[in-house]
Task: structure prediction
Amino acid sequence: MAVTDEAIEKIKGMIVSGALRPGDRLPKESELAAELGLSRNSLREAVRALSLIRILDVRQGDGTYVTSLDPQLLLEAMSFVVDFHRDDTVLEFLAVRRILEPAATAMAAGRIDAEELDALEAQLNALGPTPSVEDLVACDLEFHRGIVAASGNSVLCSLLDGLSGPTTRARIWRGLTQKDAVARTLTEHRAILSALRDRDAEAARSWATVHIASVEQWLRASLRPDVR
Result:
C-alpha cells in the first residue's frame, strides 16, 4: 500500500506541477513507470485508484487520460462516500448544510435572473397547497438545487448536491410526523423566493437559515438520547 501511495503522490505531483494537464494522455505504462522510478504493478494500482476518484480516465484500447478535473466531476467521489452515512450523523450533515446553503442563497440573490425566478415559482405553484410529503421533498431538493446553481459557484453547488442525499430521509420523516411541516416548508420556500425577487441577500440568507434549522431542530428533538 505504501508503494501505491508513493505512485499516487508522484502522478499527483505531475498534475499539480502542470507536467500533465486536463485532457492530457499519460505516457505508456512502461515509460511512465521508468520515469517515476516505479514498478509497473504499483503504477497500475495508482492509476486504478485515481480513476475511481475521477482524476484519471482509463479508456480501454486508447490509453489513460487526465480528466477535465472539473469540481463537479471530482466531487462525485464525495457523494459516493456520503452514501455510507449512519443515521446518527444526519445532524452533522444538516449542520454543514446550514452553514453553506444560506451563503449560496445570499450569493444567488445578486445573480439569479427573472427566468430562473419564474421557474422556481412555477415549481411551488405546481405543488398546490396540500402536496404529498414525497412530492414536497422532491420539490424541495429541486428548489434548493436551482437556487444554489444560480449562485454561480460550481464547487459550492457540487458540495451541497452531495450533502442533500443523507438529509432526504429526515425531511420525509419530518413531513410524516410533524403536524405543520408541509405548510411551514411551503411558507419558508415562498419567503426565500420573495427575498430573491427583492434582491435582498440578507433576507434570503436568513430565511434559508431558518428553513434548514427548523429541520435540524426537529430532528435533534426526535432523536433518542443516546444518539443526540
